[in-house]
Amino acid sequence: MKTLESKTAEETLALGESIGKMISQGLTIALKGDLGAGKTTFVKGLAKGLGVSKDYYITSPTFTIINEYPVPPLTLCHLDLYRLSSADELEYIGFDDLLDDIHVMVVEWPDILKDISFPFDIEIRFEFDKNYNRRISVSASGQWGKNLLNKLFL
Length: 154
Ligand SMILES: Nc1ncnc2c1ncn2[C@@H]1O[C@H](COP(=O)(O)OP(=O)(O)OP(=O)(O)O)[C@@H](O)[C@H]1O
Ligand SMILES: [Mg+2]
Prior knowledge:
Bound molecules: adenosine-5'-triphosphate, magnesium ion
Distance between the termini: 11 Å
CATH architecture of the domain at 25-126: 3-Layer(aba) Sandwich
Number of helices: 3
CATH class of the domain at 25-126: Alpha Beta
């Protein structure tokens, strides 16, 4: 696990950007943490690092559940499962079909996936510390996730 103390939104954006630059194939990333902790801010940086065109404004998929952005040959999928009550509802967005080598799946509020014990490549936890800064911890499972974490310089 690697940890960053982020004092500003810009530092969280920069973390997302550096991880985005390291991604060259589909993978799954869980973003955990309280409301306003910086999950969507991180995704904005990730999109920039992946090379999503500036013509796209990254917005929270709170109501749409999923937003997709093309970054040929990959596709960034930004999910927010806050409003889902069970993992069964994932069928409606075709979740299973998005788990492949070309979809970069970034999931806010992933807890309902515990029901199906879904294994994420990378898990990022956002916590407020006593000064209201964010402590961001990145952990990985699986070979590809661990390789990425090893190369991540925090
Ligand atoms: N160190 C920091 N890292 C990230 N965001 C920060 C930081 N300091 C302040 N902020 C601000 O906090 C807010 C974080 O909002 P953001 O939408 O990223 O949170 P979220 O975790 O996605 O929340 P939600 O659970 O509601 O989706 C932004 O307005 C951002 O500018
Ligand atoms: Mg959000």
